[in-house]
Design goal:
The complex is a heterotetramer of chains A (286), B (766), C (158) and D (81).
Chain A lengths: L1 E3 L4 H10 L3 E4 L5 H6 L7 E4 L9 E4 L2 E5 L4 H6 L3 H4 L1 H7 L5 H4 L4 H6 L7 H8 L2 E6 L2 E6 L4 E3 L2 E2 L6 E7 L6 E8 L10 E9 L5 E9 L6 E2 L1 H7 L6 H14 L10 H24 L3
Parallel strand pairs in A: 1-3, 2-3
Antiparallel strand pairs in A: 4-5, 5-10, 6-7, 6-10, 8-9, 11-12, 12-13, 13-14
Chain B lengths: L26 H5 L15 E7 L5 E7 L1 H5 L3 E5 L11 E4 L2 E4 H8 L4 E2 L5 E7 L2 H10 L1 E6 L6 H4 L26 E9 L2 H6 L3 E9 L11 E6 L5 E5 L4 H12 L6 E5 L15 H11 L3 E4 L2 H7 L6 E9 L5 E13 L6 H8 L7 E10 L13 H19 L3 H8 L18 H10 L1 H4 L6 E10 L4 E9 L5 E5 L7 H13 L6 E5 L16 H28 L6 E4 L2 E4 L10 E2 H6 L8 E9 L5 E11 L6 E11 L6 H20 L16 H4 L10 E6 L21 H13 L10 H13 L3
Parallel strand pairs in B: 1-14, 12-13, 16-17, 20-21, 27-28
Antiparallel strand pairs in B: 1-7, 2-6, 2-8, 3-7, 4-5, 9-17, 10-15, 11-12, 11-14, 15-16, 18-26, 19-20, 19-25, 22-23, 23-24, 26-27
Helix pairs in contact in B: 7-8, 10-11, 11-20, 12-13, 15-16, 18-20
Chain D lengths: L1 E4 L2 H4 L7 E4 L4 H11 L4 H5 L3 E4 L2 E4 L11 E5 L6
Parallel strand pairs in D: 1-5
Antiparallel strand pairs in D: 1-2, 3-4, 3-5
């Protein structure tokens, strides 16, 4: 195995396309565990952290462009980001311990393609897009289109994510993310839920996106759940519909972390709780 | 000995060191990273040893081909079953334990069959970790995969796959004619069960199940072995008992004990799990073959796959009471999983089950059952937390049924001095009632509860043990003292020994340094476990100090040219007594030490004892929980541990034992379990999914140390390390039941199970 | 397999080492630099016993490739005391009996140090969540949390 | 004479007798006499037992004195974690 830390995007693209089994490295909190356990045996590891733009958070078109190797801790410490996208920042800061948050990156959490990745439902709810670069050039994708199954992405050979874009927000918009774990920390989500919504001046919901993690082979954008909120004042009736839509969208498995029945049950509970927090945040804005 | 006023007999108020919270001799090294644990040792020319483990839960091993691995450059030795001699199936003494070496040799290295996923099949020593890993992949094992059985209840069925085709259940008359997975049946009884239940106004009978849980020590098993051409071996290892390691290794490798020197490294947690051998015989065998030092360290996955948790169990408990709250009869059936080889702690489970109560008519029947899991190892009060969990849940339910406060109900029936335990003897002075009274009066017990919260209490018992211990105490020329003991220090016992030595000698504890001696430097000392170290090695320490005092007095007598009988030892000084009193100024320990050479030579005291009279320890825990009614998640809001320590030698470390036991109990109660797939493979062999409590899962854990002295110990010490893990599971179960209005009878009480119980309760109109 | 040359600063001292690409920072600290105070208890970032501070950031050294250490500043437990003077956290841990077996202690001390450098006045809850990645199986965490809170108070006073 | 209680696990080797009086001054005398009385019990006595004499448990020792009229229980050995 070889380790390289290129300083230009072109060099990184070339390296990743050069050998059979090449793996990009950002925070390494998933990759190193997989290496140690012999789950992956790459010939080449390409450290992306020295590439321009990979570790910065920049304001762009009223939104934020976040380098793929930016860590959860850096997201939390950014002065503006957490005010605009508190749910995304919360989600990224639920990944592992303090130690992990100092290393684990947003891009890595996405491209590791765990169905239970905490930041992904929050990013999907936020309507985030990713910029992908590779031998064929650059392309943009919605976050929900990146993972295709457990540990699998649509990235082609030599491609990697360079940044994630969080769009500008209309007034009275807010997001939130909650996950369910048996302990208070250090667990993988049994269910995760991201909600992002916008209210009009009367308090009616005009836009809503709801995403669920750990209830299918990848994180899901649940359009029906969002639709249940749109047009409502986020009252009990709307929440009833939200809960039903969230549960209906689940197609989980039984595994060591939770049962099907439990996950479906909890998905509804979390959808309501997360939407309630997002609504309170949106209402709290002037 | 009567001429020496003993510190231990002095009233409590006069103790100067015992009962204080001084620094620990090993503390500085542990906060600076200097302390060396099992994996921190290295030697020149050292090889890396790795183990090939069975991927199957149950498979016959038809053949092992090591030829390709042996030919790999850098591979220096390989061992398989062929390198270990077989042993007959019989229980023989190993130190103070009775062990079956037929089973131990098979657990160390699979023989006819691999009996669990992770069972060692071969081991390799190579010049690097990567070569060792490659060598393992080149060993070809021909397995015939067999049907497996994981759960004890299933293993007891007539059609279950048999692990050992020769196993005939012991303890049954007449002996069964067919083999089974039931190794043993046992029974404890007293009084007339039928008559007892006939007197009862209410009878509650419940079934319970618990899962195996791992001790979860953070330090993986590790050792470094070096064997020379003459067969002399040195072995550094992380263990609770280096003498026990020596005993086992000598037996398994057919070596004389004098040829094996075992050095106990600092130990990163054990809780009972480091009382057996896994890597040590393999490392010695590999070193013996290669004549190079071999270091072996388990990965965390290996720790979970192949080292012993404690048993999972299926239990039935039935208790009858009169309307006035008096228990009339109690009965239990306990089925404990032993893992792949017999020897679950069902015996102590039976004996402890009803120990906290005075019950005239009782019977407990236990079964020791094998299945395709790693062989269980001791885990804090082995056996007791399981059976007492079940009993304490039924006790709580009976209190509810009678409309009695659960502490009052326990006080009505609680064991006290003179109560006959189910297993026979009458208790001497014990502290159960004192812990219950303390619980009743503790502010926690009467604090208001919030919504969705419940409060539970439970009591617990553990025997505590004594046994063989040695201590050598050297008076150095400058008056400082070096104390050598043979029990590895797992949680601060060096500090406790220093305090007891200082108290007995009458000198400042700062001048006493305690060290753990290797197996060649002190006499046989049984392991640190059973809550025996502070008790038994403490007694040896006091005896060794007294032996030194006798010499010190004799030296003073020689200097003063008076009779030895006319010298007493007080406050660290020899003083002339009787008709010579005040004739000479007292001589301090340091003065006498300085003159030791001229008055007869160095002064040392030593003691080699088999300590008897261990004092049982009782505890009572109070816990508040809050249940999330929509998800079933349980939060521990407040926790109080009350326990009889006899005498807390170092209260800080006694509290630490209470708190640590409670925290492990919280994990056992709420989330820890082994999750097996249909293929018999463990799915959560790592900290991530085994889910031990983390810092944010717990509140502060309040402690109350009750001190009812143990008359057999010079300072009144009872062991404290094990009882704290006995009450938590029932206390939490009782708290949850009071929060949600229905009872769970299965551990762990993880969110899906709690949610399901609440939903069922609601569906039934609850 | 070619080895890579890495220069870094460990506990204030310049160090150079050769490493293979697979080696973690923890491997190099323990096996090549003889700094065995950082412990390997899980190799998966779940226990925190290998915690070090890397360019001011608390990390698990088992999840850092040694090659990534090039040009970085690394603080380990061995550098926590300044000469004969213990760090206040080390002193308070001893006073509070906040360790039993001690294997988690180096990682917890490093993690707590990183916390107090960032937040001199943490609440009990903040301490508990900050340390959630540092498993301790002996103490039940009570005395550890108290020792950290007491140290914070002491450091604020001085 | 000490009153000796064997308990249900050993009763099987003593033709159902689980309580008897024996004149013995020490544990080793007691075990020798029991072994002579009930040969089937012998191996189980050698397996290592705990002996409770007037409530105090002795284990791994055969020399403990048995006072006259003591109450003696034979127990399985107790180990610990």
């Amino acid at each position: 195995m070889r380790y390289e830390a290129p300083e230009t995007i072109d060099a990184a693209v070339a390296l990743l396309g050069s050998v059979g089994r090449a793996r990009p490295l950002a925070g390494g909190t998933d990759l190193l565990v997989q290496l140690r356990a012999g789950i992956v045996e790459p010939d080449l590891i390409v450290d992306l952290k020295k590439l321009p733009g990979l570790r910065t958070i920049a304001k762009e078109k009223g939104g934020f462009r976040i380098g793929a190797a930016v860590t959860g801790a850096e997201l939390r410490e950014h002065p503006d980001l957490r005010k605009v996208w508190p749910g995304v920042v919360e989600a990224a800061n639920l990944i592992g311990s303090t130690q992990i948050q100092g290393r684990a990156s947003l891009g890595g959490n996405l491209c590791n393609a765990s169905p239970a990745a905490d930041s992904v439902p929050a990013l999907i709810a936020a309507g985030a897009t990713v910029t992908i670069i590779g031998p064929g050039g650059q392309r943009e994708l919605a976050v929900e289109a990146v993972a295709s199954g457990p540990g699998k992405t649509i990235l082609a050979k030599g491609e990697f994510v360079t940044s994630i874009f969080l769009p500008a927000r209309p007034p009275r918009s807010a997001d939130a993310y909650l996950r369910f774990i048996p302990r208070t920390e250090m667990d993988i989500a049994v269910v995760g839920c991201g909600v992002s919504l916008t209210l009009d001046q009367s308090g009616t919901c005009t836009a809503a996106r709801v995403a669920l993690g750990a209830v299918a082979e990848r994180a899901l954008l649940v359009a029906e759940a969002g639709a249940a909120l749109i047009g409502s004042k986020l009252d009990a009736a709307a929440f009833e519909k939200l809960i039903a839509a969230a549960r209906k969208a689940c197609r989980p498995i039984d595994d060591k972390r939770g049962t099907k029945v439990f996950r479906i049950d909890i998905a509804g509970v979390l959808a309501q709780r997360t939407a309630t927090i997002a609504a309170e945040r949106a209402r709290g804005q002037k | 000995m009567n001429d020496i006023p003993l510190a231990g007999t002095a009233p409590k108020a006069e103790l100067k060191w015992v009962g204080t919270r001084g620094p620990r001799p090993d503390g500085l090294d542990k906060v600076t990273g200097r302390a060396r644990y099992g994996a921190d040792f290295r030697l020149p020319g050292m090889l890396v040893g790795r183990v090939l483990r069975s991927p199957h839960a149950h498979a016959r091993i038809r053949g092992i081909d090591i030829s390709k691995a042996a030919a790999l450059p850098g591979v220096k030795a390989i061992v398989t079953r062929d390198d270990f001699r077989d042993m007959p199936s019989e229980f023989v003494p190993a130190g103070e334990m009775m062990v079956n070496y037929r089973d131990i040799v098979r657990n160390v290295m699979a023989r006819e069959k691999a009996l669990y996923e992770g069972h060692p099949v071969a081991a390799v020593a190579a010049t690097s970790a990567s070569i060792a890993r490659e060598a393992l992949s080149l060993i070809k094992v021909d397995y015939e995969v067999l049907p497996h059985v994981i759960d004890a209840a299933e293993a007891m069925r007539a059609d279950a796959p048999l692990l050992d085709e020769t196993m005939i259940t012991a303890g049954v008359d007449p002996a069964p004619t067919k083999p089974s997975n039931v190794a043993k049946r046992m029974e404890f009884s007293t009084g007339d069960l039928k008559a007892g239940f006939a007197q009862a106004d209410f009878v509650i009978e419940r079934s319970f199940a618990t899962k195996p849980v791992h001790q979860g020590y953070l330090e993986p098993h590790a050792c470094l072995a070096s064997v020379n051409e003459a067969g002399q071996a040195e072995l550094w290892c992380t263990t609770q008992g280096h003498f026990v390691v020596r005993t086992h290794c000598a037996k398994l490798l057919d070596m004389e004990m004098s040829q094996i020197r075992v050095i106990a490294t600092e130990i990163g947690g054990g809780f009972g799990g480091k009382t057996v051998v896994y890597l040590e015989p393999l490392a010695l065998a590999l070193s013996s073959k290669s004549k190079r030092p071999v270091k072996m360290v388990m990965t965390r996955e290996e720790v979970f796959l192949s080292t012993g948790p404690t048993s999972g169990a299926h239990m039935k408990v039935k208790i009858g009471v009169r309307k006035d709250g008096k228990i009339t009869a109690a009965e239990a059936e306990l089925i404990y999983e032993a893992g792949a080889f017999q020897g679950s702690p069902v015996g102590p489970g039976c004996m402890c089950a009803f120990a906290p109560y005075e019950i005239e008519n009782a019977r407990v029947i236990g079964y020791d059952v094998i299945s395709n899991r790693p062989k269980v190892a001791a885990y804090r009060a082995p056996g007791a937390p399981i059976s007492e969990y079940a009993v304490e849940c039924v006790i709580d339910e009976l209190a509810q049924k009678l409309g009695l406060d659960p502490v009052e109900f326990r006080l009505k029936n609680g064991a006290k001095a003179g109560t006959r335990a189910l297993y026979g003897p009458k208790f001497g002075p014990i502290g159960l009632v004192a812990t219950l009274e303390a619980a009743k009066n503790h502010p926690h017990y009467s604090a208001p509860l919030g919504p969705n919260q419940g409060r539970g209490v439970a009591s617990g018992f553990w025997f505590n043990i004594g046994g063989e211990s040695c201590a050598s105490l050297h008076i150095n020329e400058d008056g400082s003292v070096t104390l050598m003991i043979g029990t590895p220090d797992i949680g601060g016992s060096r500090a406790s020994m220093a305090l007891m030595a200082a108290e007995t000698l009458g000198i400042d504890v700062a001048h006493v340094r305690t060290l753990i001696a290797d197996t060649d430097s002190i006499g046989y000392t049984f392991l640190t476990g059973g809550s025996r170290a502070t008790f038994a090695t403490g007694m040896a320490t006091v005896d060794a100090a007294k032996a030194a005092i006798r010499q010190l007095c004799a030296r003073a007598a020689k200097i003063w040219e008076i009779s030895e009988d006319a010298v007493v030892w007080e406050d660290g000084h020899a003083k002339p007594a009787g008709q010579n009193a005040a004739t000479f100024p007292p001589m301090s320990l340091a003065e006498l030490a300085g003159k030791a050479g001229k008055t007869g030579g160095p002064i040392s005291g030593h003691a080699e004892i088999n300590a008897q009279g261990a004092g049982p320890s009782f505890g009572t825990h109070i816990v508040d929980v809050e249940v999330d009614k929509e998800t079933g998640r349980v939060d521990i809001k407040r926790y109080t541990v009350i326990q009889d320590a006899g005498k807390a030698v170092h209260p800080g470390y006694v509290e630490g034992q209470f708190q640590g036991g409670a925290a492990q109990g919280v994990g056992w109660a709420l989330n820890e379990e082994y999750v097996y797939g249909a293929d018999g493979k463990l799915q959560n062999a790592g900290f991530l999914d085994y889910r031990m409590p983390v810092t944010s899962d717990l509140p502060m854990i309040d402690t109350v140390i009750v001190e009812i002295p143990n008359p057999a110990h010079p300072f009144g010490v009872r062991g404290v390390g094990e009882t704290p893990i006995v009450p938590p599971m029932a206390a939490i179960a009782n708290a949850i039941s009071r929060a949600i209005g229905t009872r769970l009878c299965e551990l762990p009480m993880s969110p899906p199970k709690v949610l399901k119980a609440m939903q069922a309760h609601k569906a039934n109109g609850g | 397999m070619s080895k890579r040359h890495v220069s870094a600063v460990v506990n204030g001292d310049p160090v150079e080492f050769l490493c293979t690409p697979e080696q973690t920072l923890l491997d190099v600290l323990r096996d090549d630099l003889d700094l065995t105070g950082s412990k390997e208890c899980c190799s998966s970032g779940d226990c925190g016993a290998c915690s070090v501070i890397l360019d001011g950031r608390l990390v698990c050294s088992c999840l850092v490739l040694s090659a990534e250490a090039e040009g970085k500043r690394i603080e380990t437990i061995e550098g926590m005391a300044k000469g004969e003077e213990l760090h206040p956290l080390q002193r308070r841990f001893l006073e509070h009996a906040a360790l039993q077996c001690g294997i988690c202690t180096p990682g917890i001390l490093i993690a707590a140090k990183a916390l107090l450098e960032r937040e001199p006045d943490p609440s009990e809850t903040e301490v508990r969540f900050w340390l959630a990645g540092n498993l301790c199986r002996c103490t039940g965490y009570d005395k550890i949390v108290r020792a950290v809170l007491d140290t914070a108070a002491e450091m604020r006073r001085s | 004479m000490a009153r000796v209680v064997l308990g249900p696990n050993l009763r099987r080797f003593t033709d159902g007798v689980d309580e008897l009086e024996i004149d013995a001054a020490t544990i080793q005398q007691l075990l020798a006499k029991l072994g002579a009385l009930y040969p089937k019990l012998g191996p189980h006595l050698e397996r290592g037992l705990a002996v409770a004499i007037n409530g105090t448990i002795y284990q791994g020792t055969v020399l403990a004195p048995i006072p006259p009229d003591a109450e003696v229980f034979l127990l399985p050995p107790i180990e610990g974690g």
